[in-house]
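Hi R.,

Here's the input for the alpha-L-arabinofuranose complex you asked about:
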Amino acid sequence: MKKVSALFLGALAAAFQCSAATPSFTVDASHSAGNVSPRLYGLMTEEINHSYDGGLYAELIRNRNFRDSDKDPAHWSAITGNGAEANIALDTANPYNDALTTSLRLTVTKAAKDQPAGAANEGYWGIPVTPHTKYRVTILARADENFSGPLHVSLASEAGYFGKGAFASGEISGLTKDWKKFEVTLKTGSLTPTTKARFDITVDHPGTVWLGMVSLFPPTWNNRPNGLRKDIMQMMVDMNPKFLRFPGGNYVEGDTIETRFEWKKTIGPIEQRPGHQCPWGYRSTDGLGLLEFLEWCEDMHAEPVLAVYAGYSLRGMHVNPGADLAPFVQDALDEIEYVTGDASTKWGAQRIKDGHRAPFPLHYVEIGNEDWFDKSFSYDARFTQFHNAIKMKYPTLKLISTIGNDQASIPHVKSSKPDMSDEHYYKNADDFLKMSPTYANNYDRHGEEIFVGEWAAHETSFPPWDKRSSDEPPTPNMKAAIGDGAFMAAMERNSDIIKMQCYAPMFVNVNPGGRQWRPDLIGYDAISVYGAPSYYAIQMFSRNVGDQILSVDGADTTVQGCATRNSRSGEIFIKLVNPQATEQAVNIQIKGVPAMASKGTAITLAGKTDDTNSITEPKHVVPVTTIVNDVHPDFNYTLPANSIVVLKLKGR
Ligand code: AHR
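And here is the predicted structure with alpha-L-arabinofuranose in place:
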């Protein structure tokens, strides 16, 4: 009796162990449980962490219009020594125009052919010099009457070159006492790529020269003249984004009403853009302005999701709804016209004059950003004022409220009906794992659409705004990617209502002093770029998605996942996340298909939780593609420890 009982218990334990060790994940392929939003995967951007200046925007001169500081010519230094004598200073007399209010005065008291004196710019943590490359230099300059030119311009080694050893050089002549624009192209030959370079402007006679703006561009994506860095653009294109949310984030709001994103000051020739102080502690050139955002979308085949300033700024100031707010509402209407208008409209004609004939597609406009911080509770009335004016002129545009379901510590908009609301989630990876299995299950399917306009998992207990997070690397590790994977699976399962989502922030310049926030998705210095494991997780999700949601059963805290199908090809995409430190076998059951093609594909991102990527090891954690054999409507698949797996399978 004793023996039988022990055997029975042993068998029971084995059976229990087996089922506990092999959880099932059931995909109902008998019907579609809803449509996957065609805009589900997109990108979010703002000027933070030197995303544009010192990042995507390809300008190489730092403080090109001398307005970064009103105390000294930041990032510029005088070139002296070897017998040459000179000094540089900010000068507000005789400015080039109202935008370029300050120039750099270079006073050379001693210089000769082999003893050049001048001014050097250090770039954004160096200037990237690559072989056989053309660099476009644009300089606004004037000189005193006795100046007998020319100006020598060169890409020089960090140590300075004193006429020797420049990577590339050129000459500018014809300076007069009046401002003039000069352009020259520098061309490098064979060399080893480096960032240990600077940009030198030198003269070999005594005299005084004023520089109003100095600009240096390498080749850009699609050769756009005021364009974007090619390597960073490629990273984004590879994510297959369907939209770009811009320009913020806090950047659209500004610290104060005066320092909001004023789009009208970000268009036209760069020498007419004054730039402004951004809320992340440095000045933006606005070289990447409204038209550049739109062309960036166009170049990625993504559509803009335009955020307009809505009368609330970060230090708690708000504009009173009513007459005070009216000019800001008009500004938003003008902005929409700039994006979408034709030649017969004032702002459409301005866009054409600025260089882009075709209107841009626009379906969504976001009214402000995180207006739950406005403790005056004015958002209901502010949103409604924007809503009524925009809907009157553009009835088909969908308007996004920034008070999302989850964060709403203040009442949601009631006086008008937002089409969509924006939710933000910055959470610890473990919290994402806990919330994801049930996320959005109880959302009203007939209510407003949901935009998860900012989200990101961090690995530590410090949230991004905690100063202690600054000791961590700028980009997150595999543990965060697991949290991100679980949350993306939840959003994809619910993409009948979660219509758009985007990670934030997207970019970080990894140099000391480059960042204000972590974690970030894509890191770079002046010459290299890499993606965090989370970058690859997003890429795996966004590049492998069908148009039909398939309901799944079994997404729990052991293994989480989702499934979709491409209705045209029949391909089924099953995404699984194993957050455990051990491998996990899963019994995958695909209901409603008589048979499966026996071969499928698996794309796997796996590693130890602290595995990560960096500038020096950019590809330490990357997805690996393998063939899956013996696929059936009921089959077992083993997920590696700490992994995200996309299975691409076909029904027969
Ligand atoms: O993504 C960083 C910041 O987080 C955004 O600017 C803001 O919207 C949020 O608080």
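One thing worth noting: Confidence is low (pLDDT under 50) at residues 1-19.

Cheers,
M.
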